[in-house]
Design goal:
Elements lengths: L1 E9 L2 E8 L1 H15 L15 H8 L5 H24 L8 E8 L3 E9 L5 E2 L5 E8 L3 H14 L2 E4 L9 E10 L2 E14 L9 H5 L7 E7 L13 E15 L5 H6 L5 H35 E2 L4 H21 L4 H7 L4 H21 L4 H15 L3 H6 L3 H20 E8 L2
Parallel strand pairs: 6-13
Antiparallel strand pairs: 1-2, 2-4, 3-4, 5-12, 7-11, 8-9, 8-11, 10-11
């Protein structure tokens, strides 16, 4: 492969174009074929017996191209890329993104690598950044809520001789039957269920009410029409139940014994501990928000162009985080936007604006080449190696990014004033 050109389509962005000849693509494709031929099953042949022409006739002539392209890129491009950066004196601040421009059997392929470079930003202001860290106070009611929740976690199950009622926890075996035949997934041993929790299908938990430990009985239920298993949806079923026990959840008293189980001597001490836990959590969030405000002010003071590719990457990453958080809550973005009364366009515009501001602040604090060289020299001294050896084994772009993040945290502390305040509810 060879480097065709190095361009700067916009300020602080480098775009390199690489190409491979038809002969290089063919040789790499044949190597992929030899490596993977045993995995192909082609009609009329035993697995692994078809030759390359037969595989390509069945799957297409491009079958081995893309693995071949990846092999060539992995093998040749890193050295070409690093040499071009060094020759032009470019300092990348991100990993390059690769795109395949064209690929033809008789021409080979062309690919590009686009990478953001360290932008030239000028800080119009370096002092006087201020923010307020407002931490809501912790109320007695909030402490009581936490204590009650932890008390519930510590509840013990005590056998109950009377009939089962809602709130009891039962242990049972059951077998589900459709038209007298057991169905897949309808049988369980020593299953634990809290009656009234709604965990089982409608009618199941109600059918256990009134029965005692040791009872064996049947209940008749109907699967909901929207039940996920379509083979069971809307159908009547019989469950044979063997009830092992009926238990009452016995809550511990909130006294010194409970406090000692939690690692404190008295409830007063434990309440104080819970209060501090709640406060520390809130304070951490409030302090991070205050620091973000400072970094926002820094971004406003940083004049100059930043690479659009960096902003786009930051925006995509933030949107991905938001999507993952919503998935954990089993909520779609559309549902979330309806709850906060926001359109998709205005919401994504806000995320993009925040991505631009965060990127600008981060870029304003990136270490200089001199600072990077100092870090590498310190590593070399500690490991008794040469600077060249350390540099060869270091991802300098990643080091620059990580140092920028660390530097941002230190910068907020050293160059700003954060006023702390506890807010009464």
């Amino acid at each position: 492969m060879k480097l065709v050109s190095v361009e700067t389509p916009e300020k602080s962005v480098c775009k390199m174009t690489f190409s491979a000849t038809a002969e290089e693509l063919e040789a790499a494709s044949n190597a992929v074929y030899e490596r993977t031929r045993a995995t192909y099953t082609i009609k009329g042949f035993q697995k692994g017996e078809a030759d390359r022409a037969q595989i390509e006739a069945d799957r297409g002539e491009h079958t081995f191209w893309y693995d071949a392209i990846n092999d060539l890129m992995d093998q040749d491009v890193p050295a070409l890329y690093e040499a071009a950066l060094k020759e032009h004196g470019f300092a990348p601040v991100d990993d390059p993104s690769y795109d395949l421009v064209s690929v033809k059997k008789d021409e080979g392929f062309v690919a590009t690598a686009t990478v953001a470079l360290q932008p030239e930003l000028k800080l119009t202001k370096t002092t006087g950044f201020t923010s307020q860290c407002v931490t809501p106070e912790v109320t007695d009611k909030e402490i009581d809520t936490v204590l009650e929740r932890r008390r519930n976690y510590a509840a013990e199950l005590v056998p109950h001789k009377g009939p089962a009622v809602k709130g009891n926890v039962v242990h049972m075996d059951f077998e589900g039957l459709l038209d007298g035949v057991a169905f897949k997934g309808g049988t369980a041993k020593d299953q634990s269920v809290q009656l009234g929790s709604g965990r089982m299908i409608p009618g199941f938990e109600d059918g256990i009410l009134g029965h005692k430990a040791g009872d064996e009985f049947e209940i008749n239920v109907t699967f909901p029409k929207n039940y996920p298993n379509k083979e069971l949806a809307g159908k009547p079923a019989v469950f044979k139940i063997k009830l092992h026990d009926v238990c009452v959840r016995q809550l511990p008293a909130l006294n010194s014994d409970f406090a000692k189980k939690m690692g404190k001597e008295t409830m007063e001490e434990y309440r104080a501990f819970v209060k501090q836990q709640l406060f520390d959590g809130r304070h951490g969030g409030a302090l991070n928000h205050a620091k973000d405000m400072i970094l926002g002010q820094l971004a406003d003071a940083a004049e100059g162009e930043i690479p659009s590719i960096l902003v786009e990457n930051a925006y995509q990453q933030q949107m991905q985080v938001i999507q993952q958080q919503l998935q954990m809550q089993r909520m779609s973005l559309t549902t979330y936007l309806s709850q906060i009364h926001e359109t998709r366009e205005s919401f994504t515009a806000k995320v993009r604006a925040a991505a631009e501001k965060n990127t600008r602040a981060r870029m304003a604090l990136l270490p200089t080449d001199e600072e990077i060289d100092k870090q590498l020299a310190e590593r070399a001294e500690k490991t008794k190696k040469t600077v060249e050896e350390i540099k060869a084994g270091t991802d300098v772009a990643a080091l620059r990014r990580n140092e920028g993040i660390r530097k941002a945290a230190d910068w907020v502390i050293d160059h700003s004033t954060i006023e702390e305040k506890v807010e009464s509810k």
